[in-house]
Amino acid sequence: MRDFSLEIYRELLETLQAKGYELISYSDYCRRLTNPQSPITNHQSPVPDKFLILRHDVDKLPKNSLRTAQIERAIGAKASYYFRVGKESNNPEVIRAVVRLGHEIGYHYEDMALCNGDVDAAYDHFKTWLEYFRYYYAVETICMHGAPTSRYDGRDLWKKYSYKDLGIIAEPYLDTDFSDVFYLTDTGRCWDGYTVSVRDKIPQYQDQWTAAGLTWHTTPELIEAIRQDLLPPHVMMTTHPQRWTDNTILWWKERILQNTKNSIKRIIVKQK
Asked: Which residues contact 180 (CB under 8 A, 6 or more apart)?
């Protein structure tokens, strides 16, 4: 089975479910963490003993995100999809379809990079586009886009302003307790790509996880680790759906492009 195909993606999710992981969106996790008493059913709905927060960064090829969203809906999983403002990500038809499938939509913000580090302009830009995405969905979580070629970190916007003033309940990199939640990401088109990642990583805990052997390169390796109960019980997993496809041409194109990008990012990481 080809890695980064939709077939193996479904197998990954079904393996997690078979091992007792509940696949939940980021906003669902945040709400259940802070308010375990459901206001609708009046029953307890705490964070489950085993869960995986299913997060997707829609950097480009948004129609790929629709395919992963359909797979997730078919197996009863809920996920969070974070869209950028550019045409390479921002596809209204796809956004509407993902919402109809029952998933969360969020803003994949990069306003500091787009506004050349002007904090005030970036905040105005952020508010404008937050309202845009709220036209499609009641956005309550956001997630920064790493923008590896930019010298501006999107999270620096919150050194002056507060997203919670705008009704945002959480940002994964700033509000997740990673001492409790293990982080997986397919950045670099592998599961140990933190070595070539500029910002999509959790540096304060990565050395501990690596020392504990919690590192895998391919999806088959990750699936086998799940089957052997090696994965921690609390996980956040980030994927970039552009990488997951059954189209042979797109699959090879993404592989070749990502190998080139990884070489560039290695240089950037060494310079920091």
From this structure: 234
Report the first-to-last Cα separation within the chain, whole angstroms. Answer: 37
The amino acid at residue 180 is D
Q: What is the pLDDT of residues 223-238, one digit of tens each?
A: 999 999 999 999 999 9
Domains of the chain and any CATH numbers:
6-176+240-264 (3.20.20)
User: What tens digit of pLDDT does each residue of 160-191 get?
Assistant: 999 999 999 999 999 999 999 999 999 989 99
Residue with structure tokens 């009863």? 76
Type of residue numbered 236: M
Q: Closest by alpha carbon to 166, among 110, 112, 94, 106?
A: 106
Model-level pTM? 0.90
Residue whose C-alpha is closest to residue 269's, from 158, 188, 179: 188
Residue 250, pLDDT score: 87
Dist CA 252 CA 250 (whole Å): 6
**Pair 84, 55: CB distance under 8 Å:** no
What span, in angstroms and rounded, lies between the C-alpha atoms of 117 and 33?
Answer: 34
pLDDT at 168: 97
What's the rounded Cα separation, in Å, for the pair 93 and 155? 29
